[in-house]
Each structure stands twice: as structure tokens, then as C-alpha cells.
Amino acid sequence: MITPRRYLMCPPTYFRVSYAINPWMDPTKPVDPALALFQWEDLRDRYRSLGHTVEILQPLPGLPDMVFAANGATVLDGRVFGARFANAERTAEAPAHREWFLGHGYAAVHDPRHINEGEGDFAVTGGRLLAGRGFRSSHRSHAELQEYFGRPVIGLELVDPRFYHLDTALCVLSPDRDDVMYYPDAFSPGSRAVLARLFPGALIASRADAVAFGLNAVSDGHNVLVPAAATGLLKPLRERGYAPVGVDMSELQKAGGSVKCCTLELRD
Ligand code: ARG
């Protein structure tokens, strides 16, 4: 039995690559907004056909990266830990998320002191929170996160600029079974050792699959929506009992984000 999930997504109405804040973004390369919308709608519809609920955050003009809803907050036990973006181009997204939560019955909405980009850098496993740092979220946000949710936070150092958010390098497949997949070289040696200790049975991704955004996937504990180009992950996922669903997010990947980046989980 799959527990139905609730996700928050924001349509790519104003999606463009008009600045570069990660190595994937090249403002001189054209993007096709119609194709981006098509791919985003396909993802939304797949969630819905799997029985999940998708809530919609209204996009705002001038915020081309707002489609990456995962960065706007971290929600656990119905409580919201807001975001504070590292780059000026995205700062205005945080209050837009905050307003959405306040307007949708969330009473506890924390306005963070330290830089953190929501689920871009924070992930929820069985008993813990994993937290990335090195490019975007400040190491100080980790202590703030732990204090707010009262769950132990494991800090992980990201070292490769192409994998600038934790969710580009690691995906929680099943919080209940504490199962994850990740790309070791995205992490510092110490963090790699921490991951090996915590998740000895993890699915280890190749560089090719990581570069294809294969770790920027969303799992409901059974179905794993994963960028289709990460072909090397499909068989090992099936062998572990998951049902991988390949999706094409090529247009949004021009801004350095894929399936997971477009999806904020509302853990109520
Ligand atoms: N262009 C966006 C940025 O650099 C992409 C964000 C991707 N989101 C994510 N959760 N990794 O901030």
C-alpha cells in the first residue's frame, strides 16, 4: 500500500534562464517555454494519476526559478521551516512560499535566520534529517533546522559545483526503510564516510546517472519518478522492488533542476 503524498508545485509560466547561479545555467542558450510547461504538466499529471495530491503555488513574474518549488520550504509534521535564498535573484521566492503556507492553514511557519534552500538541501529519512552545505545552505542552518524539528540533523559537505544542492546528489527512496541512492563523489571524504556508515546498503549512482539528474528523483516509497536519461538507475531500482517511472525534464534541466526540484513534499 502506498501512502498518498501531497506535493506543492509551481508552473513554469515565467521560466527562463536569464542569469547563471549554477554551472548548468547558460543564459545564451535558448529555452523553449512551451516545452518546459509540457514537461512540468506531465510530471504533475503523473503524480495525480499515481493517487497523489498536487497543490499549486501561483508563479510570479520576474522569478524564473520559482518553478523549483522544492527550494521554498521544508515541511515536516505539518510544520514549515521557511527558506532564505543564497542568491539575490531568488530571495523574493521565500515570502511567496510563506504566504502560501499561511493562507493554507499552516499555523507554524518558521522564518529562518540562516541561509537555507529548503528541500534542495534538506532531506527526511527514517529518524533523521540530512542537510547539505557547501554551495547554498549555510552550515548554521543545520543547527537551526534541528532545533525547529527536534530531529537529529546530519550535515553533509557538497564539493562538486554541478551538484550544488543535496537533492542533486542524493535521493531518499524510502524513509521507512531508510533507503537512499546517492553519488559519492559529490561529497567530501568525511561526508562520504558518514553516508557509508548510515546507509551501508544504499544504491550507489554512477557519474553518468548523476549528471543526467538521476538523483533528482521523487519516490513515494514505491514509484520513483526519475529523469529518464539516467538509464543506469532503472534496473537497480527495479531489483530493489521499486517501480521507476522515467520522465523527461530536459528543458527545466537547463536551469539545473529536474523532477525533485519541481516538487516540494507537504508532510502533514
Ligand atoms: N536555477 C536554480 C538554482 O540554481 C535551480 C534550482 C534547483 N533546485 C533544486 N532543488 N536543486 O537555484
CATH topology: L-arginine/glycine Amidinotransferase, Chain A
CATH superfamily: L-arginine/glycine Amidinotransferase, Chain A
Q: DSSP helix count? A: 7
At CATH level 2, the architecture is 5-stranded Propeller
The CATH C-level class name: Alpha Beta
Radius of gyration: 17 Å
Fold and architecture overview:
The chain is of the alpha/beta class and 268 residues long. The chain has one domain: L-arginine/glycine Amidinotransferase, Chain A (5-stranded Propeller). It has 7 helices and 15 strands. The chain has helices at 33-49, 93-103, 139-149, 189-198, 207-211, 234-239, 250-253, and strands spanning 6-9, 53-56, 73-76, 79-82, 109-110, 122-124, 129-133, 153-157, 170-174, 179-182, 203-204, 218-219, 223-227, 243-247, 264-265. The strands form 5 sheets. Strands 2-1-15 form a 3-stranded mixed sheet, with helices on one face. Helix 4 (189-198) links the parallel strand 10 and strand 11 (203-204). The radius of gyration is 17 Å and the shape is globular. 45% of the residues are buried. The structure holds arginine.
